[in-house]
Amino acid sequence: MCSQSVFCGKDKYSGQCFEHRRMWIVDRIKLLSSISNIDVCAYAIMSNHYHMVLKINSTDDWNEKKIYAYWTILCQLPKVCQDFMKNEAQSKPVLALVYLLADKYKKRLMSISWFMKLLNENIARQENIEDEVTGHFRESRFKSQHCLMKELY
Q: Given 6, 72, 110, 126, which residue has the most CB atoms within 10 angstroms?
């Protein structure tokens, strides 16, 4: 049986313990929630999958520099954006591209799909290094259910 059937906990077939992987998920969730505009309201990590309750917030107070600062933690910025962050002079067409890219990254930082991509991709890389294999560790895309929540007073 492949170790992929048990992501966290002890594999009853091989006897291997993968409990340390639970912290990979917790640590990545903490990082992503600290820089994205998505709150993690709750999560539960089982041996072969996890559940999360997520809330998307507003980014009204985010400017281009803040967006790029957050995005840089996750991914490398294009050179025009790096130059913008260094306050280097740029032409109007280049600035237009900088603002367009900022809007694109802002949308990604508010996207549950991107949140899950950045979570799962990182975890898969760590697992593959540890197991000395390549490929995906999730068989299917995440499933999402919209929840309506009332604030309690």
A: 6
pTM: 0.81
Sign of the dihedral defined by the CA atoms of residues 102, 104, 106, 108, in that order: negative
User: Could you tell me the two tokens for 25?
Assistant: 């998920």
Classify 69 as helix, strand or coil. helix
Q: Are 76 and 102 in contact (CB under 8 A)?
A: no
CA atoms in the 13 A half-sphere facing the CB of 153: 0
Contact 105, 67 (CB under 8 A): yes
pLDDT tens for each residue of 8-30: 888 888 888 888 999 999 999 99
H helices, E strands: number in the chain: 5, 2
